Amino acid sequence: MADLAANGLGVAAAVCSMTSFAPQLIKIWRERDASAVSLRMYLVTVAGFALWTAYGVIIGRWPLVGSNAVCLAMSGAVLVLKFRLDRRSGS
């Protein structure tokens, strides 16, 4: 029963983490404006997810790899949009 609870907690955490970037990504995409996004925060976030993904690969925990790879892709997309849109607007 403890394993089931731990797995359920892990799945819930992964789903929350993976979906947390969707509203920001959608807002930036629709409005074509990333001026309110903190570049430093997203640089650190992307680096963190890259490290978590690498850690998961090293220890062979594929659920950890999968969820962090999704988070890496989504936060990386926000970062790419931040760079592109700020360059276009001259910010």
Description:
- The protein has 91 residues and is an all-alpha fold.
- It has one domain (2-89): Monooxygenase (Up-down Bundle).
- The chain contains four helices and no strands.
- It has helices at residues 2-19, 22-31, 39-59, 62-89.
- α2 (22-31) packs parallel to α4 (62-89) and α3 runs antiparallel to α4 (62-89).
- It starts with a helix and ends with a helix.
Offer a quick outline of the entry.
This protein has helices spanning 2-19, 22-31, 39-59, 62-89.
Secondary-structure element string = HHHH
Structural class: mainly alpha
When the domains are counted, the total is 1
Shape from CA axes? elongated
Enter the CATH topology name: Monooxygenase
Roughly how much helix do the residues carry, as a percent range? over 70%
Strand content: under 5%
Per CATH, which architecture? Up-down Bundle
Radius of gyration: 15 Å
Overall pLDDT level: 93
Number of strands: 0
Note the quaternary state here: single chain
Sheet with the most strands, sense and barrel status: none
Distance between the termini: 53 Å
List the helices and strands and how they pair.
Blueprint: H1 2-19, H2 22-31, H3 39-59, H4 62-89
Helix pairs in contact: 1-4, 2-4, 3-4
Key attributes of the depicted protein:
4 helices, 91 residues, elongated, 0% strand, Monooxygenase, mainly alpha
